[in-house]
């Protein structure tokens, strides 16, 4: 997948509001593989909705979104599974971790279907982010910041063309923000992937090719 | 290493996640209900299979469209000494009827006959009784030629006996005298001897039971033996037959029934009674099967509800798994495996219970002269019902999980 394009798209809940002044909604936007994008937004401007549309679990929008020119509303379930395991790595704002599983189990749940990283690499990343001793702790026992780091590592455990991050560092301090930025940049570079991250203020500290205001 | 790899396998982790909220009591409830329903259905089917031979009218040696006709015996007739035999004219008249294809005469022995049977093998008690033989033309009897012939050089008398005689022995005589009950299979192997006396001869010939009949209420021997023995021991007098066997176009023909009534003829055999008994058997079995099916259907819905509830409680987890890239079929797999395992266990248990129950009632049926029917039908019914239930379950699970694909905003 080389491009993600948005053509005149608008969440159904915003219908009839007229021009919102957004640089995304009701515009023609193209995200290219290999480039880094930041979508800065205020709360309630449809940031998480945009992510859910691009990940295929919500369809309540008008206009067209396309992967390499193909309308994503025409993708079959099987094709979406392929997108989710091989083309777009996604970190949801609410992280979608499973509290009853341990930190490592949460990550392995993803990695076991992609076989993208070895257990060693994963534990290495956990050490790097300062949660090395939390490997076997249930996620429910971790702080929000620790959970966010687990979720980020899980997101990176797959081959991808784009990394879609919904407020990836909202709960991280500057030091961890920097480490996350490094891990994401390295992974994106290794795979030649594009990065689309959203933020309401605390940006992930990676160099950005283009910034959009939502 | 492999243990560790297994610990983090997608299947293991999936199951660890999704087994949550599974209610063992609900599943046990379903399994029990399903087991009871399925067992009732297949036990009824099996019982019907086992009992059917007792009622089955289609004997191997006499066809359905053969009627055995006798003259009604009246009290007045007995007092006045009137004959209950068929005259040549009467037979000719029956033969001339449009519904009649063929008439065969019963001929009986014209000499003294004494039968001995040993029960309990060597040293066991022997029983003897005065007896009679009858024969009908071989063309009315459907037994392999090799079984149904008599050779004076190697004398052995094949006989077809009324099943009533065996019942009379088993349930009357044996029961009251403390003798062992015998099955058809056993009695066919019991040594049987006939002593024929008359015309200056007195000889003992071995006998062999080739079958039992519900409809021939007598003891039938091959026609060639009857001819031979009557010539050897009998007086040589021709007698009119007291009963005849008639091959008809259709046993239910109204014209025929009227003719028989008008002439005071009776059709032998308890065919009518048996028809009623079989009808009620079928009715009762059908009712039992319907009850079993209703229980099975209810059990099916209990499982359905239980699974829906489970999926409902796990909705968030299932959706999150789908977002990780698990396909709907991967996500539904643990539930489908669970349902298949439960249903397979129920199926096996139901068949085992059915076979145990059958083992309890089979001795009673054996005493009535049958070894029961095949168990294949009941097992096929069990598999078909369980397959239908399983397919229904799987379909519902898949549909439910597919419905989770698009999340509401």
- Poorly predicted runs of chain A are none
> Can you list the strand order of the major beta sheet of chain A?
6-7-8-3-9
Number of strands of chain B: 12
- The CATH class of chain A is Alpha Beta
Q: Radius of gyration of chain A, Cα only, in angstroms?
A: 17 Å
The assigned structural class of chain B equals: alpha+beta
Order of helices and strands of chain B: HHHEHHEEEEEEHHEEEHEHEHHHH
Give the assembly state of these chains.
Answer: heterodimer
Q: Into how many domains do the coordinates of chain A divide?
A: 1
> What structural class results from the helix and strand content of chain A?
alpha/beta
Arithmetic mean of pLDDT of chain B:
83
Name the largest protein-protein interface in this structure. Answer: A-B, 32 and 26 residues
Quick overview:
The complex is a heterodimer of chains A (214) and B (409). Chain A is α/β, with parallel strands linked by helices and 214 residues long.
Helices and strands, with pairings:
The complex is a heterodimer of chains A (214) and B (409).
Chain A: E1 3-11, E2 28-32, E3 36-40, H1 47-54, E4 61-67, E5 70-71, H2 77-87, E6 88-91, H3 103-114, H4 119-128, H5 144-155, E7 162-166, H6 174-191, E8 194-199, E9 210-213
Parallel strand pairs in A: 3-8, 3-9, 6-7, 7-8
Antiparallel strand pairs in A: 1-2, 1-4, 4-5
Helix pairs in contact in A: 3-5
Chain B: H1 2-7, H2 10-18, H3 24-55, E1 66-71, H4 75-80, H5 88-96, E2 100-105, E3 107-108, E4 112-119, E5 125-130, E6 134-135, E7 156-162, H6 163-177, H7 184-187, E8 192-198, E9 201-213, E10 219-220, H8 223-233, E11 243-248, H9 254-262, E12 265-267, H10 271-313, H11 315-323, H12 328-367, H13 376-402
Parallel strand pairs in B: 7-9
Antiparallel strand pairs in B: 1-11, 1-12, 2-11, 3-6, 4-5, 4-8, 7-10, 8-9
